[in-house]
Structure prediction request, 375 residues.
Amino acid sequence: MLPHCSLLLMLCVARLISTSSALPFEQRGFWDFAMDSMDSLDSGGMMAMMRDEEGGSGREEIPPPHTPTCPFGCQCHLRVVQCSDLGLTEVPKNIPLDTKFLDLQNNRIPELKENDFKGLTNLYGLSLRNNIISKVHPRTFVPLKRMQKLYFSKNLLTTVPQNLPASLVEIRIHENRIKKVAAGAFAGLGNMNCIEMGANPIQNSGFEPGAFKGLKLNYLRISESKLTGVPKDLPDSLNELHLDHNQIQAVELEDLRRYKNLHRLGLGYNHIRNIENGSLSFLPMLRELHLDNNRLTRVPRGLPDMKYLQVVYLHSNAIDQVAVDDFCPRGFGMKRTFYNGISLFSNPVHYWEVEPAAFRCVGNRLAIQFGNYKK
Prediction:
């Protein structure tokens, strides 16, 4: 009996030593996490896997042909392709055909070629802001049948690009080098609503007759340019016209005749000394008038007759008096809306020299802004 017990004890000790000599698990790579599942494979499955690997038949996951790709370095999400700030010198290839908005701003693209946007028929908005584009092929925008917004500011354009899409609603081409807008430059753009073209070195003579023909604009800005007068033949549909930061000397009687739909007129930061009597009578719907930072010596005539006028900026001029009827009509109920903003600060007129009745049609006394005049 004893020999049998000794033999059994020796076998147990040997088994214990064999088990305890196994090394602890050491992860050598990502696929080590799959070791447990590998143990569950039978020998047939393992051999089949080995044969696959040796034969090179292991399959990679290849995206189906219809899956859109994203240009290198860009980010693509929900049909928005963002390729800004990459130092690009040309429009990227392989832009997904279902792209709705393409952002190419803050790059170094010098020109747009004929096929740069080929196939992008679903594009809604395109931003080319802050590049060095000076040349645009006449057929660059032909494929963009549905584009509505084009942001082209801070480039080196000298003319308005040709053959813009008829679907275009808004174009921003400010801060370029445009000196001329040819007749028919915006032809066929019946859906256009907004043009921002300030900060271009354009003079009044740069607008050829018919430059804006056919447009039904609501908004137009030609600020920070070299205008010496209100441009002629702008669209008569305008609700907002901004001509700030120019060199306009005066507003003549016929300058505003076409713009009966204007709600907001910006003429601040010019050299205006005179607004001809009757000029403002052509603006019956005007709500807001900016004449600040000019050289006016008196309040423009005609303000009391503007029934809907609510805001008048006249600060930073040379106005030295305010008459009792300069702002408000004499008759009761002739003005449909009260003023909610009149700025007169930085003028030589003193508030204690102005009769309180001069502001009888102002809704709140806080709406009147006077201040100290500093020469």
Q: What stands out?
A: Residues 1-61 have pLDDT under 50 and may be disordered.
